[in-house]
């Protein structure tokens, strides 16, 4: 396995990127980074504060965080759901990493995610379906591999680990 290649996880808000990313990093004995946490650390502002300025302000911060994360080796990164809105982010990540789309159905997301605490989902459950429809093509296009998050967590982690073992 190429331990230097980064594992980049993209997908919808609430699809399990952070939860699965932390567990996967632990299994593989790699450092874990949540891109949103890196943005807050780098910018000195919360995600809602950045969005309050403008979505562009947040997306610019996301590009800076993508560059910082891509400069590291052997890490697991959970990206924000909208990272694919700027193709440059994916280009940055692909230089040092392999991109995995964690695909979870909108039905599963709305059934167990508190949409009120997600900046882009505060408009309610329908927003999840609308975002999925808007972004599904971008996620698939950006991903090197797709993993469905439609099984128990251990099964999804096993699938990730097997796939990573075969490709890295």
TrEMBL record:
Entry note: cofactor: Binds 1 Mg(2+) ion per subunit.
Alphabetical list of SUPFAM superfamilies matching this protein: P-loop containing nucleoside triphosphate hydrolases
Principal subcellular localization: cytoplasm
Claim: Amino-acid biosynthesis is one of the keywords in the record: yes
Catalytic activity, as annotated: shikimate + ATP = 3-phosphoshikimate + ADP + H(+)
Binding site for substrate: 36, 59, 81, 135
A GO CC term assigned to this protein in UniProt: cytosol
Subcellular location: Cytoplasm
Function statement: Catalyzes the specific phosphorylation of the 3-hydroxyl group of shikimic acid using ATP as a cosubstrate.
Name by which UniProt lists this protein: Shikimate kinase
